[in-house]
Amino acid sequence: MKKIEGYKAFNKDLKCKGYQYKEGEVHETDKIDICREGFHFCENPLDCWAYYDLMESVFHKVTSLGKTGKHKEDSKVVTTKLQIGVKVSLSEMVKASVDFILKKTFRKKGKSSGYSAQIGSSGDSAKIGSSGYYAKIGSSGNYAQIGSSGDSAQIGSSGDSAQIGSSGDYAQIGSSGDYAQIGSSGDSAKIGSSGYYAKIGSSGDYAKIGSSGYYAQIGSSGYYAKIGSSGYYAKIGSSGDSAKIGSSGDSAQIGSSGDYAKVDSSGKNSVIMCAGHASKAKGKKGSWITLSEWKMTNNEYTPICVKTRKIDGKHIKADTWYKLIDKKFVEIKDK
């Protein structure tokens, strides 16, 4: 049987749906049924983000060694025999996503207004535009400018200084070059960038944004955004409700104005600011946290208290969730 390589997401203890996996082992089963039975993985790394939380998961390379079946809507694969490979970092996931999209595109320059277009360019200074649905656009040259207004676009760029814009829903955008500027206004976008100095903006709901480069600037105005950053000196802002923000790089600046935000920073010397109602945050010793408390008055929420505390390890513990309750920092359990 033909081997198929891909990527799989797990809980941090290497479990998936209650099943315990182990790196280097081969797992076998008799029956497969896509989304029901068997061992599942994705050929496109970005598709893993649709099934597992970006910040709460670990990712591994995997290889199918048995009988397989494929999902009709994305790159999800089910197999009877799955070998678990090495752990993959966020930057490696983003780079692999770009490579995957580039391999799926044709090597030709141009514009397209039709459906299901596939456009690829390997030259520098390319300008690529597509207004059709289901477009797949790839560019490996520097200074590329890529625009897409159709839904379900898959856009990959490995060159520096790329400018990528997408207004359609369900877009998957990956960039591994430095200085990238990526914008998406559609819902449910998946955006990954591994280059330095990236500027990423998303206005659609349910966006999933991952950045592993230094000095990234990430902004999201949609609801339920999931934002992960592993590079140093990141600046992350979110104005939508129920955002989940995770940063592992040092000296991060994280701000959230939406309600019910959940902000987790594991990097040193970071600053976390939550202006929305019922938000919570945690960080490392030496970082600072600002939280706000709101109260319902005359059928609307009004702020009653805003406080800032340094995580000193004594009064405010490191790696511990806090919420502002009755004008006090209160330690809470994550749910």
Strand-helix topology:
Elements (H helix, E strand, L loop, with lengths): L3 E8 L3 E2 L2 E2 L5 E3 L10 E4 L14 E8 L3 E3 L5 E4 L1 E8 L1 H14 L7 E2 L5 E4 L5 E4 L5 E4 L5 E4 L5 E4 L5 E4 L5 E4 L5 E4 L5 E4 L5 E4 L5 E4 L5 E4 L5 E4 L5 E4 L5 E4 L5 E4 L5 E4 L5 E4 L5 E3 L5 E10 L2 E11 L11 E4 L2 E4 L4
Parallel strand pairs: 10-12, 11-13, 12-14, 13-15, 14-16, 15-17, 16-18, 17-19, 18-20, 19-21, 20-22, 21-23, 22-24, 23-25, 24-26, 25-27, 26-28, 27-29, 28-30
Antiparallel strand pairs: 1-6, 2-3, 4-9, 5-8, 6-9, 7-8, 30-31, 32-33
Describe this structure in words.
This protein has 335 residues and is mainly beta. It has two domains: 4-88, no CATH class; 121-331, no CATH class. Helix content is 4%, strand content 44%.
Strand residue content = 35-45%
Report on the biggest sheet.
Answer: 12 strands, mixed
Please give the share of residues in helix. under 10%
Mean pLDDT: 90
Tell how many strands the DSSP assignment holds: 33
- Individual helix count: 1
The overall number of domains is: 2
Cα Rg: 21 Å
**Quaternary arrangement of the chains shown?**
single chain
Low-confidence stretches: none
Q: Quick one: overall form?
A: globular
Strand order of the largest sheet: 10-12-14-16-18-20-22-24-26-28-30-31
Structural class: mainly beta
For the termini, the CA-CA separation is 43 Å
What features would you highlight for this structure?
ten-stranded parallel sheet; 335 residues; twelve-stranded mixed sheet; 33 strands; mainly beta
